[in-house]
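Q: What does the assembled structure look like for these inputs?
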Amino acid sequence: MQSKMLRLLQWWFMFLAALLPLGWISYNAWIFNLGADPAKTIVDFLGQWALHFLWISLALTPLKHLLGWSGLLRYRRMLGLYALFYACLHLLSFATFIVGWRWDLLLQAFTERPYIFVGATALLLMIPLGITSTKGWQRRLKKRWGQLHSLVYLISLLVMVHLIWLIRASYFDAVLYGAILAWMLGYRLYLKRRQLQRRRGTAAAGS
Amino acid sequence: MLIKKADKIKPSEITSESVYLNRRRFMQGLAGTAALIAAGSARAIPEYDLDSDLPRYPGPDWLQGLLRASEPNAAFSSQEDLAPYHSVISHNNFYEFGTGKKDPAKNAQNFNTDPWKVEISGEVDKPGVYNLEDIVKPHRLEERIYRLRCVEAWSMVIPWIGLPLSQLLKQVGPNSKAKYVEFTTLQDPQRMPGQRSLFSSLDWPYVEALRIDEAMNPLTLLAVGVYGNALPPQNGAPLRLVVPWKYGFKSIKSIVRIRLLEEMPKVTWNETAPREYGFYANVNPAVNHPRWSQATERRLPSSLFNPNVIDTRMFNGYADEVAHLYAGMDLKKWF
Ligand code: HEM
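A:
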């Protein structure tokens, strides 16, 4: 009973904590504290948080194996959905604050700017994952659920390309997030290989 | 190809431009005097109402009198709304002090620019290392209100104070071999934290250049002040270029060297990403940056629900003054 209460509290804590970035940027927009170009500041900020949530949700598996942090794994769905949420806000703020819903400019952005095109592809691919993230869909899709959700690796690579194509004066962000992503994906490959080896090992012993 | 183009500029053309310039200044001088008499005031540039909680930059003693005596140049003015002072001093691209827009205002405050020396060398009659004071003092400073169009598709309208670059160049006497003017920003990683970054895509020092006829164009300004005061360090104190018909990155900051050259020099952004940033970098709505459109710009400051998107104009609206410089050139090729 008590542990259920605790779970509920934890859930609400996570849920609200993930809204803090949105609260922070809204508050600072409200008090005009975002500098001379608030539009760009907001778009960048929301893009960064979309990326952070995506990266955090990808980090949970390696962290579980390395540090035994399995508690957070329960929140992976929530964190992934927040990545989608912030990415949608990122797109909305771009369309509203930067291009002012001028359809000619929007269309041009999506067709002529490769970095926006890959960003949009990433976002588009995130949507089915968001929709099928519920337990019901997990049950219905069975094995294919896992296959579908391994799209997240492709999405993360697309976001990485989005980021790289944005580089102007500093490689810092691309190097930092690229290194983390390489580690997170590399670690999964390593796990997979070990799993395969172990299976082959048991198969050999059985024969 | 480019060098051939420059060969076509005869020294006589430069001279004729300077005669034109003298005449123009004479006329403007008359107009300025008339305005002074009419206004009966010693200071013709407006007393800007700068927010009292923002830093001001009075500049060194020798400059203060010159700034006070500066006059608006009616021929280079604008009816557009000025970007507010707080935006001008807090929204800067000056990667020597960090890559964020707010970094320079944060990191450059203790950047001491007095004393300051400027090396002038290359194809000139009077090369040397000059004290900034000695370069600036012989000239009457003027205020010019220019549109500044960043290559990132935002823009501001800014009241600069400075002197035409052509006046300084005449003072040192370019010889007939001088086809290009190259400018270099200070390189001092101790004082410029951005130059210590391991992740910078730029090679220091920052270098920019103009063709000599661009440099001699009456629009080309060497600024020492903005908004009635000296330049803040984040805006390129103590001496920067302002070339209003080109993307902002051509308007190099904190200049320590001016070289006159026969050959086209290598310039920083063009070296970093030649497909994206040309030597000329003229504002041109018809030639997009590979990663974004240049057809429109966001005039800052913009409010959130009115992004203030306006159409970008050819040569940033200065076509009458500069289009002749590029007659016959394919500007899609020489972007
Ligand atoms: C339709 C989809 C998208 C659009 C239209 C879009 C648009 C943009 C734009 C205009 C910028 C600023 C570019 C600049 O600096 O000039 C940007 C930056 C960024 N975007 Fe996106 N994006 C999209 C999807 C995504 C997604 C799915 C993610 C991550 C999950 C993402 C993460 C980022 C990040 C991290 C930045 C860099 C912010 C910075 O410079 O600090 N974007 N995006």
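The interface with chain B takes residues 29, 35-40, 42, 96-100, 102, 105, 108-109, 112-115, 165-172, 175 of chain A (CB under 8 Å).
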